[in-house]
């Protein structure tokens, strides 16, 4: 893949990641707002993650990697996000435990999780 194509793929990944992160954070924030702190922080966070995950799969497949949906890609995407979700929950709970506000912690989590997920997904969509 030529350098320009790699760069554009990364740019598309960043766009999709930004949209997915906004969906994730938006759902989480709305649950916090309307449920007055939610039932459990991790449940609210997970609901946001799942909604974002579904949107992310289709955007990543069609827009980022210019590919088509298949069972293999769905499985690889699912695996990458299982790893990614684990990283999210562990980091989120660590950040909250050390005193970072529950509405700021997700932003910090994304700074680690997004690049990690990109590296895994590049292997899935080869």
From TrEMBL:
Q: Which residues form the GtrA/DPMS transmembrane domain?
A: 12-123
* The UniProt record lists the keyword Calcium: no
What Gene Ontology biological process does one annotation of this record name? Answer: polysaccharide biosynthetic process
The organism named in the record is Marseilla massiliensis
Show the InterPro entries listed in the entry.
GtrA_CellWall_Glycosyl, GtrA_DPMS_TM
Leader sequence residues:
none
What this protein is called in its record is GtrA family protein
This protein's GO CC annotations: plasma membrane
Looking at the UniProt entry, the stretches that span the membrane are 12-35, 47-65, 77-97, 103-125
- First-listed, main subcellular location of the protein, grouped into a coarse class: membrane
Indicate how the chain sits in the lipid bilayer: Multi-pass membrane protein
**Family the entry assigns:** Belongs to the GtrA family.
Which keywords annotate this record?
Membrane, Transmembrane, Transmembrane helix
Compartments, record wording:
Membrane
Q: Which Pfam families match?
A: GtrA_DPMS_TM
